[in-house]
Amino acid sequence: MCQCGTCGDDFNSRSDCDDHMDTFDHWVECETCTRQFRTQRSCNQHMDALNHREFVFGCQTCNCIFPSRAAADQHMKHKRHYKYYCSQCERRFLSDNRLRQHLKSKFHVGTDVSCPFCNAPFVTASGVTSHLEYGTCPKADNWNRETIRQMIQGIDPTGLVTNQQIGGHNDESERYYATESALDGTTWVCYICQRRFITRAALNTHVNSSIHKQKIYHCPNTRCCDKEFALLSALFIHLEHETCGYARFENVPNVYRQLLDAILNDKVVTGL
């Protein structure tokens, strides 16, 4: 009996096995020279004897190289040499962005931002603001996207974070519904952004979301950032990502508290 070292099939003779390996290219090749072997074991013996291994798997932190991904992973795990690694939690991440998001999570930052009404804990200013904007606080029935907009504009006459709104109507109470003209064959099309939806209900949800609402807020970093937002929580997300450098992530809750204090105490905001 003879066995193919690649797929494990058994053959009655070596010639039959060789024919199979030739047909399906199941020979095991040396990583350096052109020698071929019937099994990985015999190939490994050859490469070890002649130093023919191609060390292509490197450590993400140091200069060590390894003959296999498994060996490299074992080294990095033992030495904690992963490039995107949280040593406190002993967790690895696939990208720098995911690691940074982890370091900004409740596992490291805590939940020191709380709702002023129901005391629900949140990790970020954007989280508690979204909680209020979407009317999910059980003890703040009159707080939603529109009432918050009115309150913020009331305490921000100089436009630190708000734009002059076109028209003075309440757009929170307005609902838009797709007509038959939005149906393009088998899909429903948003006339503003041309996105397609399978159902009319999905399109209605889309057009009444914050995506196409008037951009009421702007980044306070007016010197080098022109970002505008339909939601206050979206503004906080922008600041938390530190994309324009206006505030450090850990300082964004202070901006939230300043605005909240001005709203609750009916004070004008003069600076952030």
UniProtKB/TrEMBL annotation:
Designated name of the protein: C2H2-type domain-containing protein
Domain C2H2-type residue range list: 84-113, 188-212
Assigned keywords, A-Z: Metal-binding, Repeat, Zinc, Zinc-finger
GO cellular component, as recorded: nucleus
Origin species: Penicillium vulpinum
UniProt-listed Gene3D superfamilies: Classic Zinc Finger
GO molecular function, one term: zinc ion binding
Keyword flag Cell inner membrane: no
PROSITE patterns: ZINC_FINGER_C2H2_1, ZINC_FINGER_C2H2_2
Matches recorded under InterPro entries: Znf_C2H2_jaz, Znf_C2H2_sf, Znf_C2H2_type
